[in-house]
Amino acid sequence: MDAGGGEQLSLAAVRDQLIREEDSIVFALIERAKRPRNTPAYSAAAAGGSLAEFFVREAQVLHAKAGHYQKPEDVPFFSQDLPPPVFPTKGHPKVLHPFASSVCVNDAIWKMYFNELLPLFTADGDDGNYAETVALDFACLQALSRRIHCGKYVAEVKFKDAPQDYSPPIRAKDTNALMNLLTFTAVEEKVKKRVEKKARIFGQNVTLEDSVGKQDGDACDSHCKVDPKVLSKLYDLWVMPLTKDVEVEYLLRHLD
Amino acid sequence: MDAGGGEQLSLAAVRDQLIREEDSIVFALIERAKRPRNTPAYSAAAAGGSLAEFFVREAQVLHAKAGHYQKPEDVPFFSQDLPPPVFPTKGHPKVLHPFASSVCVNDAIWKMYFNELLPLFTADGDDGNYAETVALDFACLQALSRRIHCGKYVAEVKFKDAPQDYSPPIRAKDTNALMNLLTFTAVEEKVKKRVEKKARIFGQNVTLEDSVGKQDGDACDSHCKVDPKVLSKLYDLWVMPLTKDVEVEYLLRHLD
Fold this sequence. Notes:
- The structure is a homodimer of 256-residue chains.
- The first copy, chain A, is mostly helical.
- Chain A has helices at residues 11-32, 51-65, 106-121, 130-149, 151-161, 163-171, 175-182, 185-202, 228-252.
- Chains A, B: Keywords: Amino-acid biosynthesis, Aromatic amino acid biosynthesis, Cytoplasm, Isomerase.
């Protein structure tokens, strides 16, 4: 999250960021869908872990050396033994509570991605392009994780806007009451519709012939590179609930 | 390039692959455009090279360990001392001449990307997100390099279709004649129009409000995440000429 020069967070700025992250998620899924399932990339090899796990671990070491994982929304999947940056980094404005960086639901994202999501948007098959496949998986995981952990900013903004509403359930550690305060069904329905529409627009086969295009309607969904319904399902079942888990976890420690 | 089970290459299959690579290039540029120029990522640091160079070198080491760079279109930017794969890899059908893997224009792609292209589609500024920035650069470089080195398949198919046309200039090492044989201005114009259209469609801000959308027309170009004209310029000045350089270099050694 970039607070835009100042240190003030606004709900509008956070929402803009979340909307932009949707594009990244849709792009990443479309790119991964170029390749079939490629299950050998996920089976444990001689060394113990799978190629996918090896790749994500090593990629995170490299990203850490380059200076990544300094912001509260950038949380590694494997946080043990990450090296410090080897190049100078620039500080980011601290707009969240210091414990924000320890709020992490990556274990749930990892399981969801490999066990639930991947079979929904990749074709059965094995084309042998395992290295490319796991690099594309890493891009999906990163985009999902960043979007979901942006929930920390959502929670901070919502708390700041109405501390009188949030403080009592935080003190009572009332998770259900917090979850209710954080749930806006009408907004969630809009988000689901929008990501579905993005998948339809970004996943179409663009040709010079159709000048008006296939922006709407389900007629083209079978030609989309990722089924648009998978995107609304992803947001409905996992992205928005996990974001709210992040929000609740963040809020519960807000008065510590 | 995936020959699709068989070992036969067809011009149609190669063209489909090239068209799909266009989407990857457009997505990668749109993602990079999230961040401003961030020039400190490109200045030499104490260690000698820049963060960008460090990142690409190290990322390629990781990708090589994962089994990448086995196919003729996947050519590393820094090929010295790349480690062998540490996980089992699956062989790919050999449809090109063995020397194909040594045909490489990555030095020219590197210079073009950092010196010419980057200033055209990123905003002035420094937001401090250097690690993210160079990771996005690496994705752009990889997508461009793969697209351009797919020229090896284009050349192979064209040679197979008309060896009688290509053999004399190959024997005479007549680069100009080969370049003429490989140039189809009408096709190139279509490609430029198509990538421009893709940038317009994939780079728009999708909202639920506009149901018809802004698939065509220049009215929205200022709102596109990457100026669509940059894409047609990229293809006109660099992607298509460099692809033809790859084709010529491949063909020149075809009768060795």
